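Researcher: We're teaching a course module on how sequence relates to structure. For the next exercise, students receive a sequence and then see the predicted structure as tokens, so they can try to spot secondary structure elements on their own. Here is the exercise chain.
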Amino acid sequence: MWGEMIFCRYCNHGMIYISALVVVLLNSRPLAGQQDPPVPSANSVTQVVFTSILLGGRRISGASNPEVDHRDGSLFVQFSPVVSPGAGGLACRYRLDGLEDSFTTASLHEVRYSGLLPGHYELVVQCRMGDSSHWASNPATFAFTVLAPWWQKWYTRVGEVLLVGLLISAIVGLRTRALNRRRLELEVAIAERGAELVEINRQLLQKNKELEEIALTDSLTGTRNRRYFYETMPSEASRALRAHRVLAEPPCPSELIFVMVDIDSFKQVNDAYGHAAGDRLLAELARRLSAEVRQADCLVRWGGEEFLIVCRTTQRQFVPIFCERLLRAVSDAPFDLGGGIQVVKTCSFGWAPYPWVREHATALPVEAVLELADKALYLAKASGRNRAIGALPSEDIKRYPDRLVGQTIHGLPDSAIQLVTTVLSSTSGSAG
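Model: And here is the predicted structure for the students to work with:
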């Protein structure tokens, strides 16, 4: 007869709960008309039942996949194998899926876990008897869930992601606004700095222009200096030559007239009254000459007491009249030398046109024409001073302009030059 057993089977999970720790099989005869139940052999695989389950400190009885709060993540299970009397070599093992990957040999018929993290777990317990190498194919299992705290819920995770996104968006927005504000500040600073640089550049250009003006201006008389003449004359000469090629028929309105001016007996002023008086004389002479020349003309201090007038709009046939005005402007009024000293001075003039020969404009360069004007000035001084002499090409040279090719001023015969003299008398222009 089988001994009395108290049990209940939870069929859905294949678990058996019994109150007795050991099932005792009595070796008695079966009742009449009944067959004896199969008796497990001493070396067969045995079944396991849970006798007590405490989850989070609460006893579990028949619940399917119970759940427990994350603060109560502890498990205590007692189990018992179903064995026959006299069975020996009993061995059991267990594993908590969701926490462990391998089985652990049980020295006692109980399992204890504490501090379980949120998640789904399943306890698996197997036993075997004797020397069997096979574990029970239907182990005892108990599945349960440790609930996650609210901050680990999916909606909390979504909220965290949204919050982080909003925080990042706010940070990016603040950073973007700060960068835009900084960019605007830099743009304003750059614009202000650019305006400052423009103003500085304008001032530098103005200063450079002033320095250039100083470099090209005679400091004593305020007229142009010799450097200005040599820097501007190439372009002036080219313009005059182009005009001659376009306007081949005389009179040509674009020829240049070089008028050399020299103060007569200037050294006597320096010797008698000093160099300061001589400087005052030079400054006053420059003022009188500037008053007579046209705005398009240029007055150059050539050196010492010499000046050069470059006439850009005067034709050669009218130069004697122009020189007469200059002679009168110089000699009509005395020069005030300061200290109550006044002197009457005169000037001598020598002039020549460029191109010298209209029919052969390139026959003599500018330098040669300047030498002709200087030679005419020397002749004016040698002829008695206070007069103007012009050096023009003779009719012979006009007929044979090729004779000038390769010649210098010193190689020209006297017959090649026609002199035009202007003096302050009833006859202002005479040829010699």
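Model: If you want an answer key for the exercise: The two ends are 177 Å apart (CA to CA). Confidence is low (pLDDT under 50) at residues 1-39, 426-432.
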